[in-house]
Every structure is written in structure tokens, then in C-alpha cells.
Specification:
Mean pLDDT of chain B: 87
Helix content of chain A: 25-40%
Helix content of chain B: 55-70%
Largest sheet of chain B: 3 strands, antiparallel
Number of helices of chain A: 20
Order of helices and strands of chain B: HHHHEEEHHHHHHHHH
Distance between the termini of chain B: 17 Å
Strand content of chain B: under 5%
Oligomer: heterodimer
CATH class of one domain in chain A: Alpha Beta
Structural class of chain B: mainly alpha
Structural class of chain A: alpha+beta
Largest sheet of chain A: 7 strands, mixed
Distance between the termini of chain A: 139 Å
CATH superfamily of one domain in chain A: Penicillin-binding protein 2a (Domain 2)
Number of strands of chain A: 24
Strand order of the largest sheet of chain B: 1-2-3
Number of strands of chain B: 3
Strand content of chain A: 15-25%
Largest interface: A-B, 41 and 57 residues
Shape of chain B: globular
CATH topology of one domain in chain A: Penicillin-binding protein 2a (Domain 2)
Number of helices of chain B: 13
């Protein structure tokens, strides 16, 4: 047996000492890491562990002039499953299939997937979410979230706009008033493990979300509905590409309705509003969507045509180069330099006063007025009236006026400009400029936004918009109103005449470029009451088939709208004696007809001028509509049921 | 006391010392290890196997087996193993060779032999076999060990096993080499030779690192772990250590063990100890290891013969090298290499053989003659 020697012991001590020394050095290293660098590493580690979980703020509502909510939020649910917490997978699968109407295969795949959290379905209605929650299934998570919701669907879709996945405005008022509407998201500071799974009870901080503010707009959903109905009717009847209608208050620029048919469903803005035969690639689809979202009233320009004669007339009257009584002669054309510019009436209007010229919408008359004004004056008035600048409407993407450069305008250009051709403006520009001319000469800013209030109604801001007074004299305003009322009562705008209301307006028919395509734009601008305009409407029908004259198709559309909205706006009918006679206006009391024979009834009705419709066959009247004793208009339709 | 002393006085010659301090340290470390293992592995167990006690249960089995082995070995005279030493040493070669061909993969290295439900890491056995073998050989040639030739021959004996283990497990090969060097150092009366060997080794290592790009890259990762993907583990360990502070976040409160430090229950467990128990806990653990090594020194210095002393020195070297390398790696004091922390890190084979080694050390301590 070999004994250990002294040197062995000494060496063992050396080994121990060395080991102990190294370990003490490592302790030193630990001191450095855990005291000196502690804060640095702690911070880095926290960055790694902390997650901010956002709490979405409710976006502000959009409320129309009548107090109706036209854009709001809906609570929707997201259903997810947490694999490790599921106890009864079969039950979970069957319930989720049933409630969410998903295929079993799809649900099973997600439920059985070995992952931390698997999303089953988003945008689930709150009632369904609540129902699923009520089953109390472990491992099934129901998270609530806000989704933008538009109660009226497609109503004023291109005006209101919609929001994207982050609840941010994408088009329309939603994007223009983003800063007021969006609110401020809150967040919960949580800790997660390396997979991003939240650790229970580790929430460290919470900042509550601040709801967005409500936007009050001048758009009136009732007027918008009337206008959309009329627009839809004419669009269908004329197989038009699209129809735009702007209805605004000419006194202050508040827009009451803005129709851009075809509209699209705001609750489903990423689906095209027409059928496509082929499957579209991403880019084409996006282009089509962008087209669908376009607000033609604001984003697109067109040649206004004869409606622009209002502006030429105003400039001519204001400048004093023409009076109502000035006489002109129209042979059906006018030669300017070497060009022969035709009137729409090939035979010519013959001799006529300026007033008659406007009523006839005679091109040679306006060419003459334009030439009398001269290039400098025309541009002076364009500038003064605000035609060359954007209107400043509170919608994104307003297009500017496309106008000749002043130095390039010769006599021919001047002549065509005088009756609204060879340049382009937006519909909103035309409506605004005409408003400014007829309201007494104050250039207004067209707008929707009226006020912003907090979600509980406290006023934050009343919007005010710039105006420019005296762009035209009040005499000219009055003359123009007079002329335009004449256009309706006796001129080309007769189809917009409404007994009892004093309507002024102007029709237009313009041809789109290229002229060879034979595509037309038919339009009408009207306002009422003529002596004190409270409402102005511009209707534009793009590419109508068949008859395309503005006076024939656009004017009746505006008439229909006015008939509906003027009483709604509290503008009363005042009949003149000639009107009562001509249009047989008046009320009668419905006589009792039930029980009479058909012959007897006919005899009674002969005293009146009612339009009678008989239902069923027979000789005796068994029922009548309206009932006896009701007050009805003299020209009403009545229905009699026979047996 | 006195009646009992009188009663047993006739057996005084047979009465032996037993190092209860070491036993206490072992038990404490093992229990502490299990607690920390549960703390670090419960998340991984839950995520991977749906059972937070998955790792704990496996480790507990190995530990219980190990404690039984330790208590049995402690009661056997360590000279009993002399006759099996050569067989064990050869068996270590065979097993280490076998693992190269039929070993099972884990994280890209073949280190395990699967026999039925039990998987076994031959390199752990190899360390024990080398300690026993070298202790025996060196004690036999102790008179000639100062000769350079003898020394080299002894080293050469370790060559094959170091090579076999080193193929898949460089860290363990280094540990085996380290144990061999310490044993020879202790047995030899000389100093100069070792200084020369040390210098030679350093130069050799330098060239080795320089020549192999893979190792040079490791060096870069070591210096700037934040710039490399492969520095992720090291960086996460540093975050854990740094965020522990002085008193730590409290037992079980580690964030980094939640998947940030990969396989936190393995090599990097010390970083989680730092995070949960702070500088205080980490230093206490290091002190506990120093205390243990100190007990080994006492036992070795009082061993009845050189063979016993060398066994304990081998065990001491084993524990010391692993503790030092592990903590150095975890604190990014040296480049990353996979070395487990004795008694704490997860590993059944390791626990079994470490406890067997403890049994040997205790067995040697029983032979210490009390001098009064």
C-alpha cells in the first residue's frame, strides 16, 4: 500500500487553492453582471418579455342633420381556441361547428392543431359570441372587438367612406375627419413567454382607451334617400353608366345630399358592386375597387355644357356688356374666325332677346356675349367667382378645374368656353359657383362637417368655413334668378316646373370626349324658391341611352326630388291663379260611393276630374279608396272595388 | 457519552471516521438541485409534454437510484473496486465506441445509448472509469511518475477514451483530460514540468482555434453574443443573470425560463438560479461547491493511501472542472460549450454517476484514521 507523501498533500492544497481562486474570480464576474450591468440586462429582458396589448378605442359616430346615426360601431367577437386548455375537444368541435356554421373538418383541424392559440373565426356577431361564451367551454376564448358599422348600408357610401382593418378611415369623411373620429387606443402592458403567450396575472399597467369624437354632418339621410331613389329610377330608365346628384344649401354651402350611383355597401366595401365573369388578379381588382369608391361629384371633372351659361350670363350682366333686352339673331350657327359653331337648334332661333336666348339655351347668343366680354374679362370673372380654385369641400381628393391657359385662348376657345365647352370642372365646383351667384354673391365653401362633439354630446368644435362676399352684385343675382326661373317656367327647363313652387334652373347636354363616341352627359341644375334660394340641386346623368337631353331626363329627376324635399324642408307651396286653373289645383272631399252601382258611381264622379281605377268585375261598388270624407287633391287617383 | 464510549472501547481500532459534513453538503445540493430543476423545467415540461413535473420525475428516479448507489458504495472498501477497474475502463471504451454507431440523436449530437426505456450517457460513466483507472495506475507507478516518460505514458493511456468521447462530446473529453492532468500533478513532486505543459497546452490551443474557422467563430460569438444568432443562448443567459440583481426575483419567478433561455433545465440552469435567487443565491451556491471541494481536499489529505487520495482528487477535479467551466460559460467568461452543473442540471446518468462518485469519496473518508 502506497502512502501519500507530504508533497502530495501540498499539491492537493494547491489544486484546492487554485479551484477556490478561480471560483472567487467567477463570483467577481457575477458581481459585475448582477450589480454593475444589472440594470442594462434587466431592461433588455423586460423589452423581451413585455407586450403592449392594445385596447381599441371606439371610433366616433357620424350623425346626420336629422340626428340619425349613419356610421357607428358594432361589437363583434373573435373566437379562438387554446389547445392546452381544451378539455372536451369533441364537444368544442360540435358546438363551434353549429354556432359558427363552419364545416366540421375546418374546426377540427384548428381545434386539434398543436399551437398555443388558434383563431377560429373573426367578426362574429355579439349574440353568437355571447351564446358560445354561455356554454362555458374551457379552452374557448371569445374576445370582443369593435367593427365599423353603417346602419344604412350603401347610403351616401362615397361621402361617408369606410374604415380599414386598423379602424382607420380609407375614403370619404371617415378619412377627412380621421383625427376627430379615431380616438386614442388604450393598452394593457402584459408579460409573455417566449411563444408570446400571455402570463396570467402579470398585467403591469393599463391605460384606458379614449373614445373618438362624434362628427355631426349636414347630410340629411331622408333627402339623400329621396335623391338616391330618383337617381336610381332615371339611371335604370336610361341605362345610364352613373348618376350624380348634389343637393346643397346655396346660402351657406351645407351639402344635404350627394348621390353617386352606383353606390356600394359600406359594410362590405371590398366586394365589387357588380358581377365579374373572369377571376381578377389582385391589381385589377384593386383598380376596380378604386373606381367603385370614386366620388364623381368631387374626384372627376366634366365639360359642364349649357349649365355653365349661368356663369357666362352673370359675367356679361355684371360687366354690362349685355342686358335682358338686347336682341340677338340666331341663324342656327355662328362663325367665329374661320369656324362655324352650331346651335343645338339647326334651324336657328331667329331673332331673340338675351332673356329668350337664355331660355332657348341658344349657343350663338352666348358666343356673342363671350366675345363681347373678351378673354381678360372672362378670366377675371372666373377668378372672381372662384372657378379656378378648388372649392375646399371637406372630402379628400377634390379635382381641380382643367382650364385653358389664358395666353392660349383665342376667339374660338373663348366662344366655346362661353357655352361651357373645351374645359372641365367638377360637379361640386359648378354647384358651388351657381350657389354663390344666386345667393346674393357670396362665395361659399361646400361642406358636410358641421360640428364635433364628444361621445356624450359635449361640443368640441363648430366648424366655420371661409366665405368671400360680393363676388357678384346683388342686382346681377336677382337678374339671374329671374332668368333662370323663366327657363323653368317657359324655357328648356319646363320639365322641372312644379306648380306652387318657384323653381329656377338650367339644363345642359354635353358630349364626352372623344366626340366620335357619341356619349353624352345630361345634366340639370335647379334651385328653389327662386326669390330666396334655400336648396340647390345638380343632377348629372352619365351616358344615358336613347334620349339624352338634359331638359328631358335630368330636369324631371330634379323635379321629383324637389317635389319630395321642398315640403320636407318646410317650403310652402304658393299657387298663383293661373296655376290653379292650369294645373287644376285644389282639394275635394271624397264622396261616399260604396253601395252604388258602377253607373251611379260614374255619374257622381263626373262632377270631379278624378282618375278612377276599377278592380274586379261586377256592377256594385263594395269598397273605395280613399274612404269617404277624406280630403284629397282634385287630380288624385282613386280605386273602386266592384262585385 | 462515556458509557457508550466504554461500551465500544474494545472496538476502538475498528472505529472509523465518516465525513458527515460532505454527506450533508451532498444531500443539500441534491435537494437544492431538485427544487431548482423543478422551477426551471416545469414550463418546458408543460409545453412539451403537458406535464410540469415531467423532468422532475425523471430526475427524481435517477437521484433516488443514485442515493442508494452512493450509500452502498460508501459502505464498501474502495479497494474492492481495484479488481474491476481495468474491466470498467475497457467497458467505458466499448460503450463510448458503441454510442458512435448506435447512439440516439439529441440536439444533433449522438450521446445516448438507448436500452429499452432507459437512455444512458456513456461519457458520464467514462469519467468515473477514468478516475478509478488513473488513480490505480498512478498509485502503482507513483515512484516513477516524476519521470517525463512515465507521465507521458500515463497520459497516453487516456488517449483512446478521450478521442472516443471527444468525437461527440468535446467538453467531456476536456474534463477527462483535466482530471488526468490534476491526478498526475498531485502524484508528481515536480512543478516545472507542469508549467511547461500548461504553456505548451495554451500555445497548442491557440493554434487549434486559429486554424479552425468554426472555433474562431465561437470566439467572436463569445466576445459579441448580441451580434450572432448563435449567441442567442448566451445572451439570454446574461439577461437572466443580469435581471436577478442582488436578491433575485424569488423562487419560481424567473421570466427567462419561459422559453427564452432554451432548455433552461440543462447547461444554463445556473443563469436561472441567478435570476430567481440573485447574487446572494448564486454566491451561496458557489460557496457550497467550494465547501464540498474543501471536504474532498480534507479527505484526500487524510486518506490512508495514495490510491484513495487519488480517487478523491479525481472526484474533486471532476466536480471542480465542471463547476468552473459551467459557471464560466453561463456568465460568458469563456466561449460557449455544453457542460452541465453537477447535482443541479437535468441529467439522469450524470446524477447517478456523480452520486456513485460521492459514495466512493465517502468510502475513502471511512478509512480515514482518527488520530487523537
Amino acid at each position: 500500500m502506497v502512502k501519500s507523501k507530504t508533497f502530495n498533500r501540498k499539491k492537493i492544497v494547491i489544486v484546492f487553492a487554485a479551484v477556490a481562486m478561480i471560483l472567487i474570480m467567477l463570483v467577481g464576474r457575477l458581481f459585475y453582471l448582477m450589480i454593475v450591468k444589472s440594470e442594462y440586462y434587466q431592461e433588455k429582458a423586460d423589452e423581451l418579455h413585455e407586450r403592449e396589448r392594445e385596447i381599441k378605442a371606439a371610433r366616433g359616430k357620424i350623425i346626420d342633420a336629422t340626428g340619425e346615426i349613419v356610421a357607428t360601431n358594432k361589437t363583434v367577437c373573435t373566437i379562438s381556441v387554446i389547445h392546452s386548455q381544451i378539455k372536451e375537444p369533441e364537444k368544442v368541435i360540435s358546438i363551434l361547428c353549429k354556432e359558427l356554421e363552419l364545416s366540421e373538418e375546418k374546426v377540427r383541424k384548428r381545434v386539434e392543431k398543436f399551437s398555443s392559440i388558434e383563431r377560429i373565426k373573426t367578426n362574429v356577431d355579439k349574440e353568437i359570441g355571447d351564446k358560445i361564451r354561455s356554454y362555458g367551454l374551457s379552452g374557448v376564448k371569445v374576445d370582443e372587438d369593435f367593427k365599423r358599422y353603417y346602419p344604412y348600408g350603401s347610403l351616401a357610401s362615397k361621402v361617408l367612406g369606410f374604415t380599414g382593418s386598423d379602424n382607420q378611415g380609407i375614403i370619404g369623411l371617415e378619412v377627412k375627419y380621421e383625427n376627430y373620429l379615431k380616438g386614442q387606443n388604450g393598452y394593457i402592458l402584459t408579460m409573455t413567454d417566449a411563444r408570446g403567450v400571455e402570463i396570467k396575472d402579470a398585467a403591469e399597467g393599463r391605460v384606458e382607451p379614449i373614445s373618438g369624437n362624434d362628427l355631426y354632418i349636414s347630410l340629411d339621410s331622408n333627402i339623400q334617400k329621396f335623391a338616391e331613389q330618383s337617381a336610381a329610377k332615371v339611371m335604370e330608365a336610361k341605362s345610364a353608366d352613373s348618376v350624380c346628384i348634389i343637393i346643397m344649401n346655396p346660402q351657406n354651402g351645407e351639402i344635404m345630399a350627394m348621390v353617386n350611383l352606383p353606390e356600394f355597401d359600406l359594410n362590405d366595401p371590398f366586394t365589387l358592386n357588380f358581377e365579374t365573369t373572369e377571376t381578377l388578379d389582385e391589381k385589377t381588382k384593386q383598380n376596380l375597387l378604386n373606381q367603385m369608391w370614386r366620388n364623381r361629384c368631387i374626384n372627376d371633372t366634366y365639360e359642364p355644357g349649357s349649365t355653365f351659361k349661368i356663369i357666362t350670363a352673370s359675367a356679361g350682366l355684371e360687366e354690362g356688356v349685355v342686358t335682358l333686352e338686347d336682341t340677338f339673331h340666331c341663324p342656327g350657327f355662328k362663325i367665329v374666325e374661320d369656324r362655324r359653331i352650331r346651335c343645338h337648334k339647326i334651324a336657328g332661333h331667329g331673332s331673340e332677346t338675351f332673356l329668350q336666348g337664355v331660355m332657348n339655351s341658344c349657343n350663338p347668343v352666348f358666343i356673342e356675349v363671350g366675345l363681347r366680354l373678351g378673354v381678360d374679362n372672362i378670366f377675371k370673372y372666373f377668378k372672381q367667382l372662384g372657378l379656378l380654385e378648388k372649392t375646399g369641400v371637406d372630402l379628400p381628393g377634390e379635382a381641380g378645374t382643367i382650364m385653358h391657359k389664358k395666353e392660349n385662348v383665342g376667339q374660338v376657345e373663348l366662344a366655346t368656353m362661353a357655352f361651357g365647352q373645351s374645359f372641365q370642372i367638377t360637379p361640386i365646383q359648378l354647384a358651388t359657383t351657381v350657389s354663390s351667384i344666386i345667393n346674393g354673391g357670396t362665395r361659399v365653401t361646400p361642406h358636410f362637417g358641421v360640428a364635433v362633439r364628444t361621445y356624450d354630446g359635449q361640443l368640441i368644435e363648430n366648424f366655420s368655413y371661409p366665405t368671400k362676399a360680393n363676388i357678384i352684385s346683388s342686382e346681377t343675382t336677382e337678374t339671374i334668378r329671374f332668368i333662370l326661373e323663366k327657363v323653368i317656367s317657359e324655357g328648356t327647363g319646363k320639365k322641372a316646373y312644379i306648380p306652387g313652387f318657384r323653381v329656377g334652373g338650367k339644363t345642359a347636354t354635353s358630349q364626352t370626349l372623344p366626340r366620335s363616341a357619341k356619349k353624352y352627359i345630361s345634366s340639370f341644375i335647379g334651385f328653389a324658391p327662386a326669390e330666396n334660394p334655400q336648396v340647390l340641386a345638380l343632377a348629372i346623368i352619365y351616358n344615358p341611352q336613347g334620349i339624352y337631353y338634359g331638359g328631358t331626363i335630368a330636369a324631371p329627376a330634379v323635379k321629383e326630388i324637389f317635389e319630395n324635399i321642398l315640403p320636407y324642408l318646410g317650403i310652402e307651396q304658393v299657387y298663383e291663379a293661373s296655376e290653379i286653373e292650369e294645373y287644376n289645383i285644389g282639394d275635394i272631399t271624397m264622396p261616399e260611393l260604396v253601395g252604388l252601382t258602377k253607373k251611379e258611381a260614374d255619374k257622381v264622379l263626373k262632377e270631379y276630374e278624378l282618375n278612377v281605377e276599377y278592380l274586379n268585375e261586377g256592377e256594385t261598388v263594395t269598397d273605395q279608396f280613399p274612404l269617404a270624407g277624406e280630403t284629397i287633391s282634385k287630380t288624385s287617383n282613386i280605386i273602386l272595388y266592384l262585385e | 457519552m462515556s458509557p457508550r464510549e466504554n461500551e465500544k472501547s474494545h472496538r476502538r481500532k475498528k472505529e472509523h471516521y465518516f465525513d458527515y459534513s460532505l454527506l450533508f453538503i451532498i444531500i443539500f445540493l441534491v435537494c437544492f438541485g431538485l427544487v431548482m430543476l423543478y422551477s426551471t423545467s416545469s414550463y418546458n415540461g408543460q409545453v412539451k409534454f403537458g406535464d410540469s413535473t415531467f423532468y422532475l420525475k425523471k430526475q427524481l428516479m435517477a437521484t433516488l437510484l443514485g442515493i442508494v448507489a452512493m450509500l452502498i458504495i460508501a459502505r464498501i472498501d474502495y479497494h474492492f473496486w481495484e479488481r474491476f477497474t481495468l474491466v470498467a475502463f475497457l467497458l467505458a471504451h466499448i460503450l463510448s465506441a458503441a454510442v458512435l454507431f448506435v447512439g440516439s440523436d439529441f440536439n444533433g449530437s449522438k450521446r445516448w445509448l438507448k436500452i429499452g426505456p432507459i437512455s444512458f450517457q456513456p461519457s458520464e460513466f467514462a469519467k468515473l472509469a477514468v478516475i478509478l483507472f488513473l488513480a490505480l495506475v498512478i498509485s502503482k507507478v507513483s515512484k516513477k511518475i516524476k519521470q517525463f516518460r512515465t507521465m507521458m505514458m500515463v497520459m497516453a493511456l487516456c488517449g483512446p477514451i478521450v478521442a472516443l468521447v471527444g468525437v461527440n462530446n468535446l467538453s467531456t473529453a476536456i474534463i477527462i483530460l483535466g482530471i488526468a492532468v490534476i491526478l498526475i500533478f498531485v502524484a508528481s513532486p515536480k512543478y516545472m514540468q507542469f508549467i511547461i505543459i500548461g504553456l505548451g497546452g495554451s500555445v497548442f490551443m491557440g493554434i487549434f482555434i486559429y486554424l479552425e474557422k468554426y472555433r474562431a467563430e465561437r470566439l467572436k460569438i463569445w466576445l459579441h453574443p448580441e451580434n450572432f444568432d448563435k449567441g442567442y443562448q448566451t445572451l439570454q443567459a446574461l439577461y437572466a443573470i443580469g435581471s436577478g440583481g442582488i436578491l433575485g426575483k424569488g423562487l419560481g419567478e424567473s421570466m427567462q425560463k419561459l422559453g427564452f433561455v432554451p432548455e433552461a433545465q440543462n447547461d444554463m440552469i445556473f443563469s436561472i438560479i441567478c435570476e430567481e435567487l440573485g447574487l446572494f443565491g448564486a454566491v451561496s451556491l458557489i460557496l457550497l461547491f467550494i465547501l464540498m471541494i474543501w471536504r474532498f481536499m480534507i479527505i484526500a489529505n487524510n486518506a490512508p493511501d495514495l490510491y484513495g487520495a487519488l480517487i478523491v482528487v479525481g472526484i474533486m477535479g471532476h466536480i471542480a472542472i465542471q463547476v468552473i467551466l459551467n459557471i464560466a460559460v453561463v456568465t460568458n467568461s469563456i466561449p460557449n460549450t455544453g457542460i452541465t452543473l453537477p447535482f443541479i442540471s437535468y441529467g439522469g446518468t450524470s446524477a447517478l454517476f456523480l452520486l456513485s462518485e460521492m459514495g466512493l469519496a465517502l468510502s475513502v473518508s471511512r478509512q480515514v484514521k482518527l488520530e487523537k
